[in-house]
């Protein structure tokens, strides 16, 4: 019921696109030169579904429901944050080499968030890496205890990557924490 028909969506697409680009800019966090996290919410997911419907000309209700079911997992549950993690590789001739260096990125304790001094390990969606391959796109969740949720807006929050070949930390800005705090409730 939150989605527009393709015809209705085409009428508002340019304005919706501007809104989502501005929103995602506030919700995108770069961690070092190669990784970025775009934290998803109901608006970003609805936009993605609308774009899929438009591009693939999906009008059948069952097919739309399939897209909704697929993308709904990206909407965070209360107390959790959900992000699309991108391994950024602008050099097309380096894709395989760069991805190979990120093998094991999805192992426990490699990617985590700190809320104050307390760690919250990233939970990676399965199926985006194998022993010999890793995808450039991953879906991760950070599920916080109620205590961490209550501290989130008023304390230092950082995203850490502690991989043998890639170490980086980024502190969230006040604006980023304000955006993500909405998701936690």
Helix and strand layout, with pairings?
Blueprint: H1 6-27, E1 28-31, E2 35-39, H2 42-56, H3 61-72, E3 80-87, H4 95-101, E4 111-115, E5 118-121, E6 123-124, E7 137-143, H5 146-151, E8 157-163, E9 166-171, H6 174-184
Antiparallel strand pairs: 1-2, 2-3, 3-7, 4-5, 4-8, 6-7, 8-9
Strand order of the largest sheet: 1-2-3-7-6
Query: Would you list the SSEs in sequence order as H and E?
Result: HEEHHEHEEEEHEEH
Helicity range of the residues? 25-40%
What is the SS-derived class?
alpha+beta
Report the radius of gyration as a whole number of Å: 17 Å
Tally of DSSP helical segments = 6
> First CA to last CA: what distance?
22 Å
Q: Assess the beta-strand content as a share of residues.
A: 25-35%
Number of strands: 9
How would you describe the shape? globular
Largest sheet: 5 strands, antiparallel
Which stretches are low in confidence, meaning pLDDT under 50 for 5 or more residues running?
none
Averaged pLDDT = 94
Provide structural commentary:
The protein is an alpha+beta fold and 185 residues long. The protein has helices spanning 6-27, 42-56, 61-72, 95-101, 146-151, 174-184, and strands spanning 28-31, 35-39, 80-87, 111-115, 118-121, 123-124, 137-143, 157-163, 166-171. It has a 5-stranded antiparallel beta sheet with strand order 1-2-3-7-6. Strands 5-4-8-9 form a 4-stranded antiparallel beta sheet, with no helix packed on it. A hairpin with a 3-residue loop joins strand 1 and strand 2 (35-39). Helix 1 crosses helix 2 (42-56) and helix 2 (42-56) runs antiparallel to helix 3 (61-72). The longest helix has 22 residues, at 6-27. 19% of the residues are buried.
